[in-house]
Design goal:
With 225 residues, this protein is an alpha/beta fold. It has eight helices and twelve strands. The protein has two domains: 118 residues, Response regulator (Rossmann fold, 3-Layer(aba) Sandwich), CATH 3.40.50.2300; 90 residues, Orthogonal Bundle (Arc Repressor Mutant, subunit A). The protein has a five-stranded parallel β-sheet with strand order 2-1-3-4-5, with helices on both faces. The protein has a four-stranded antiparallel β-sheet with strand order 6-7-8-9, with helices on one face. A three-stranded antiparallel β-sheet has the order 10-12-11. Helix 2 packs parallel to helix 3 and helix 6 packs across helix 8. Bound molecules: calcium ion.
Length: 225
């Protein structure tokens, strides 16, 4: 099984206004998003904090998006990529797809279209055609951020949702506190030292007893069932 945690997106876009719009839309969808404005920074970021999906503008200052794509694929980085391009020429799109992009979207676009395409990729990555993750008697709806336990549904906060999603998608594996922090918080965001413990505590109230196990000195795990 492919291990994918709560969606972590890297946005490479030098147009500040567009980037701000995309970032707000992603946050509303409970994605964790990091943003860089040029190709060199993007490559560094890809290697140090690999995202689940890369949204890549082609027209960037310095190294352009197509170069970033070619270089990352050459370096064996397999992160799924959605290309953003103002150049709606067919040749550009074909070149992008041939260089290893998974999808492209032509500017100007509706944010909801971008979100829909991210969802398609997300489902592909999660290897699931449903917007639902089920383990044991718990099912998590990834569209509404609701968790259902024995016919009873509870709404999760953004962080609770991301935390539970990460643990469920990695069921059978221990996730350390720092694994979880990197999935729940953006790059550089301040994190209280007990933040994960607090979210786990609140999340447990909405789950069956002992659903999330604490592995002392290591982290947390949801067992495969
Ligand atoms: Ca641009």
């Amino acid at each position: 099984m492919l291990l994918v945690c709560a969606m972590n997106i890297l946005l490479v876009e030098d147009d500040k206004l567009l980037a701000d719009g995309i970032i707000s839309a992603m946050k509303r969808e409970h994605f964790s998003v990091n943003h860089v404005v040029d190709g060199t920074e993007a490559l560094t970021h890809l290697k140090t904090v690999p995202p689940d999906i890369l949204i890549l503008d082609l027209g960037l200052p310095g190294m352009d998006g197509m170069d970033v794509l070619k270089r990352m694929r050459k370096q064996g980085l397999s992160t799924p990529v959605i290309i953003l391009t103002a150049r709606d020429m067919l040749d550009e799109k074909i070149a992008g797809l041939n260089s290893g992009a998974d999808d492209y979207i032509t500017k100007p676009f509706e944010l909801k279209e971008l979100i829909a395409r991210i969802r398609v990729l997300e489902r592909r990555i999660s290897n699931s055609a449903l917007n639902e993750i089920v383990i044991g008697e718990v099912s998590l709806d990834t569209m509404s951020s609701q968790v259902m336990v024995k016919q009873k549904s509870s709404q999760l906060s953004r962080r609770e949702y991301m935390l539970l999603k990460a643990l469920m998608e990695n069921a059978g594996s221990i996730l350390t506190k720092s694994n979880l922090e990197s999935k729940l918080y953006d790059w550089g965001e301040e994190i209280a030292s007990n933040a994960i413990e607090v979210h786990i505590h609140n999340l447990r109230k909405k789950l069956p007893d002992a659903y999330i196990h604490t592995v002392h000195g290591m982290g947390y795990i949801i067992k495969k069932q």
